[in-house]
Description:
Largest sheet: 10 strands, mixed
Low-confidence stretches: none
Number of helices: 3
Strand content: 25-35%
Mean pLDDT: 95
Distance between the termini: 8 Å
Structural class: alpha/beta
CATH topology: UDP N-Acetylglucosamine Acyltransferase, domain 1
Number of strands: 24
Radius of gyration: 17 Å
Helix content: 10-25%
Oligomer: single chain
CATH class: Mainly Beta
CATH superfamily: Hexapeptide repeat proteins
Amino acid sequence: MLIEHVGASPRIDPTAWVAPNATVAGDVVIGPNTRVLFGAVLTADGGPIRVGSECVVMENAVLRGTRKHPLRLGDRVLVGPRAYLSGCTIEDEVFLATGSTVFNAAQIGRRAEVRVNGTVHLKTVLAEETVVPIGWVAVGDPAEILPPDRHEEIWSIQMPLDFPLEVFGVERSDDMMTEIMTRYVRGLNTHGDDRRLDS
């Protein structure tokens, strides 16, 4: 399904293929010979998405571009099933396995791998050819790669990166969720005027 969002329409190279039940919304460019498989969602929520050539975005993956954090995939990138990417930069020949998560302002270097259920956190810089093991967390610049059971160490690096402020523009506080959700819901109202292009 191709959707015009806030006046921008997807641009898909004629050699690319998008599954009929994938959703591509807004300012999304899909490069030559790329494949977007069944159930995938590419949504430019205020910021563009650029997908290079010969990429594969597998089933039920979600790619989101935001106003502050556009999303870019280089060439020959594999995005596995159920992966979630938001406002990040992925260089060429990267492998993002099933269930991997890459957060806003993260950068993943050429030929890096994020294995099954691995996480690359907010503002994290993962060097070329680095591997995030199954279920592990990469956090910081340069990235430290830690197992999930070392939460206190992960949090000591993650907390100053300030997810609520970076992503939602809201200072961390006891009642921050009220402000975050008010802003988030208001921002997503822009989808009310979306127009399906391929019906």
